[in-house]
Design goal:
The protein is mainly beta and 439 residues long. The protein is built from 1 helix and 36 strands.
Length: 439
């Protein structure tokens, strides 16, 4: 039989048990994270000091108690960063007091300052990990030009900027700003590719210096333009870099035309001197020299260099404009002209001397011929017409004494035909009177 006293004690014990269970349950719901004890230290390290935009790296926090031993496994460590994210932001130590998390840089350039905290232990500002992200990681910009020389009448050159981080590695996805002192660029801002290269195209007809900048002035480096151009880079501020390259202009060869010192004659060869001079620096080679003589004839002399003497025959007297057009391998073209006056061709002089005077029927009469031919010409054909329906062909002779017998008393007209070597051939006629009397 239960007494009132026994029932009251049982209820009291049951109430105490319920309160104890409630207390345990409450403590489990509000459990405080395990933190590093006083005097502990946290050392934070990163597997990378620079990252491209959207890059990531591993962070390791090592927690040690004052005695140098690892804290209780499961000690909570909290991470903070000024840029990007740490995943997870809160993590627990393993059996040796380590915590491994991932830092993700995000899509912004800058320097991430990352710290770790557990209880009274902290990396502090001196132990924080700093990671340069994107443009903030740049250490050098090397600029190249291909080609480094363009034609004087305008051309294009591909400008490439190689972006390197502070460790000398290619830095992808870094925004590179291009500027030029002359000409135009296809793009002013270009992100570097996976190999750290950003490119734009320069169009110019004058010498231009192109500068590629990441951040602001900075970096340290030298670039080389393909084909002979050179580039430079300088840095004075960490995380900022620029470099430059100069695109030069191919120098054109020059042409001078020297006509004959005396007016040439129609039908006779006239010598012209064409002098092509290559510049001492940045010269482009000669592709061809074409001469328009001004009389309808055009001649391609090919890749002339130095002095070339060319002969030309003008058929008719008059004033002609001789034009030489010089084309180089870069596509530059220039024309130079010279005026020449062509005079009528001089005629050969023909002297005809009969002997004896007078001559006699049936007797020998000698016809002497003396031809004086102008300089540059020769006699192509000399023919005598004795005036009595007989002739004699003397070939290319310039003088001759030809015997002839006239068969009647009469005054005969002797003609001498001289055909010279001009182009086209010209024939000059000389005459003389021969008197023949009876014996």
């Amino acid at each position: 039989m239960l007494t009132a006293f026994m029932l009251t004690g049982f209820r009291a014990r049951l109430a105490c048990l319920a309160a104890a269970v409630a207390c345990v349950t409450l403590v489990g719901c509000e459990r405080v994270p395990l933190l590093a004890p006083a005097g502990s230290t946290i050392t934070l390290t990163s597997s990378a000091t620079t990252l491209p935009v959207n890059g990531s790296t591993t962070l390791i926090a090592q927690v040690l108690e004052a005695g140098g031993t690892a804290p209780q496994s499961g000690t909570n460590v909290t991470f903070t960063t000024t840029l990007g994210t740490v995943r997870p932001a809160n993590a627990e130590t393993d059996s040796v007091g380590r915590v491994v998390v991932i830092f993700s840089a995000g899509d912004q350039s800058g320097t991430a300052t990352i710290t770790a905290l557990s209880g009274g232990a902290s990396t502090g500002t001196t132990g924080a990990v700093k990671i340069a992200v994107g443009a903030a990681a740049v250490g050098k910009v090397i600029v190249n030009a291909n080609p480094a020389l363009v034609p004087a009448n305008g051309g294009q050159s591909t400008i490439s900027a190689v972006v390197l981080d502070v460790n000398g590695n290619a830095l992808p996805l870094a925004p590179v700003a291009f500027t030029t002192t002359a000409g135009t660029l296809t793009s002013g801002v270009v992100n570097s590719d996976l190999n750290g290269v950003a490119s734009t195209v320069l169009t110019t007809s004058t010498a231009a210096t192109v500068t590629a900048s990441v951040g602001a002035t900075g970096g340290s480096g030298t670039g080389t333009g393909t084909g002979g151009g050179t580039g430079t880079g300088t840095t004075t501020t960490s995380g900022q870099a620029s470099g430059s390259v100069t695109v030069g202009i191919l120098a054109q060869p020059t042409l001078v035309i020297t006509p004959p010192t005396t007016p040439p004659s129609a039908g006779l060869p006239a010598a012209f001197t064409f002098t092509v001079t290559l510049p001492a620096a940045n010269a482009s080679a000669v592709k061809s020299l074409t001469v328009n003589w001004g009389d309808g004839e055009v001649r391609n002399l090919g890749p002339v260099s130095g002095t070339s003497i060319q002969s030309h025959v003008f058929q008719d007297p008059g004033t002609y404009l001789v034009t030489g057009t010089l084309l180089d391998t870069a596509g530059n073209s220039q024309s130079v002209s010279s005026t020449v006056t062509v005079i009528p061709a001089p005629q050969p002089t023909i002297i005809i001397t009969p002997s004896p005077v007078p001559g006699h029927v049936g007797a020998q009469t000698t016809i002497s011929v003396q031809v004086t031919i102008p300089a540059g010409l020769t006699v192509a054909k000399l023919t005598i017409d004795f005036g009595d329906n007989t002739t004699a062909d003397l070939g290319g002779a310039t003088s001759a004494a030809v015997p002839h017998v006239y068969l009647e008393a009469k005054i005969f007209t002797v003609k001498v035909f001289v055909t010279d070597s001009s182009t086209p051939p010209h024939t000059t006629i000389g005459t003389a009177v021969v008197s023949i009397v009876s014996p």
